[in-house]
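FYI - complex with (6S)-5,6,7,8-tetrahydrofolate, inputs then prediction.
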Amino acid sequence: MHAPLLARSRRTRRTPFTDRVTAAGVKAYTVYNHMLLPAVFRSVEEDYHHLKSAVQLWDVACERQIELRGPDAERLLQMTSPRDLSRMATDQCYYVPIVDVNGGMINDPIVLKLASDRFWVSIADSDLMYYYKGLAGGFGMDVQVSEPDISPLAIQGPKADILVERLFGKDIRETKFFRHKTITFQGQDMVIARSGWSRQIGFEIYMDGTRHGPALWDHIMEAGEDLDIRAGCPNGIERIEAGLLSYGNDVTLENTPFEADMGKYVQLDRVPTCRARAALLEKQVPDRQLRAVEMSGDPLPACTEPWPLLAGGTHAGNINSAAYSPDFKTNIGIAMIEAAYWDAGTTLVVHTPVGPRDVLVRAKYWI
Ligand code: THG
């Protein structure tokens, strides 16, 4: 069967690195924040083994930055998040739930605090900027909401720290997890953070990609040649092993942060201005929650719609992400499971497009 192509137009935005990614032989794209996101280079399995053993350079320009700037920037952000932002330092990154007034998840970005009145909200795949524009306009707040031309590049893999020291020095290599520093390339300041959507060692560089992106890409690729650096991308197997959530797949507007197992990023007693506080106080004890699950049998196809989970004849939840893990030699997944069935060790049945499979609920993710 012939795989259909994705018809491109201006609406599906290219990135400053798209030419480099094409030259590196990208085999498949997905669309994220209306922008191209590479999904496969050699094969998902080959990319996976390479990510876990060497170092990769990722075009994650689709992690768009929503900049909130002005005296009301922090107030606007806190209105939409139940995570307490009041103690955040100007070199910190926070993974935060962003919610509507009912406590439904709108996004799960990384927030970078750049100054007391300036934040970048590094968004997952939903149009968060319009929500901020609506709130800022409706409440007459003193804050500018924009999407600057900032394009993150990620360096991920066990050899990422060797490469980063070589490129930017020991001080940058020693950046702590979820902290950021400033580097200079071609006379231009850029933000570099220890973060990224993998469980490997990783850094993310935020820059004016149109101006400096291609040159920085080439510079990093040359410096990493002897480390077997390759163009790569977020890997669907590794991220399930790691339990890294994907907004739109594992979590949607229908879910609260508690259902998304993001309760550790919620401090309702310290966020009186969060618009969802009252709703979330009522929903602190969820009746379903995300769990790691293992599925028996041959390698399963990717999950492109929820796969129903059954306990006897009763609905027990859905599997929303699945992959075969070469390292753990089993099918692995992330499921939203009803409270009666979410204890580790529970066995269920899932209905997949290739037939029913036995499912084991696990206590934790794999890596
Ligand atoms: N980096 C940047 N922006 C992003 C992502 C990223 N925007 C889109 C998407 N990824 C947002 N979603 C996530 C999901 C998980 C994590 C980061 C962004 C993550 N979680 C760790 C975990 O769950 O173990 C650590 C969280 C913590 O301890 O604070 O890293 O990847 N720039």
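The longest strand covers residues 314-325. The mean pLDDT is 97.
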